[in-house]
Amino acid sequence: MSANSTAESYTCVRFYVSTVSFSVLLFFNLIINWTIVREERLRSHARFVLVFHLLVSALVHLGTSSVFYYQIHLKARPGRSACLAMITVLISSASNILLTLTAMALDRYCAVCHPMRYTSACTARRWPWLLGALTWLLALAIPLSLLLQPDSQTSRDAYHGECGPEQLRTGELQKVLFIGLCTLIILYSYVRILVESRRLGVLNRRNKAGCKTIALHGSQLAVYILPNFVSFVLSILNKRRLIERDTKELSAVVIFAFFSLAQCVAPVVYGLRKEELLEQLSHRFPCCSRYMKAVLGWTVRASWPQTHHRAR
């Protein structure tokens, strides 16, 4: 198989994966985000507002990825402005996913380790939405600072009509440093939460639901964060000719599939395991909640609200 046909097949795989993931995530966005927006108790709570922003960011990223890889498959030659817009949306939405995960970790850290201050701060109902808007502004500043540099792949001199993966690789080192910083903040927050939970006696071997939640959150964060570091290492190895380009491209496709899978699992880990959200979903979408309960199984069984009580 030639290099061109291999690259085209990888592009098709990325397009199909992003399209399927976008479709699955669109369903979760409709039912979860609609429930959060319509229920005042949920939309005034930072935990659910951050879930809202996480799902929207993932939906925007996967939808733009689908368009981006489809135009590569068609060998289209979009204008520089259109290419710049797609790259900006891709980088900013991916950055906002990581920033939102960091904000969620800090939110749980404040709620567990500083409950009195957290409760007093939660009286202002608009601050979670302002926090979400702030993460979007920071995420938008990241691609603009990278793409507006003179040596960027999207500069007037470097752009020749092809909008592809080369433009996405702009500022690889800066992206890895940003991911590393967010990872350190997330790890610090969860370590402090674990220490405080053990001190209070909440987290122990008998608390299977708590241990399962920690395991799910850890695996979810690993799928989000580790692929970026692996991709960066593979790029360095390829530049030093320690691995072939085909190996690097195949690994990049697998990493993209894992990242897309993380977007589809995120509503389960961060949304559907919340008892308050499940209760409202069961009221607003009774048919969907019944099927989700059967399909999701063990991941939500521990936290699903019991609607039938045994007679004494």
From TrEMBL:
Keywords: Membrane, Transmembrane, Transmembrane helix. The chain crosses the membrane at residues 15-36, 48-72, 84-106, 127-148, 176-195, 216-238, 250-272. InterPro entries: GPCR1_Superfamily_Member (IPR052921), GPCR_Rhodpsn (IPR000276), GPCR_Rhodpsn_7TM (IPR017452). This is G-protein coupled receptors family 1 profile domain-containing protein. Gene3D superfamilies: Rhodopsin 7-helix transmembrane proteins. The keyword Ribosomal protein does not apply. One of its GO terms (cellular component) is membrane. It comes from the Eukaryota. One of its GO terms (molecular function) is odorant binding. Residues 28-270 form the G-protein coupled receptors family 1 profile domain. It is found in: Membrane.
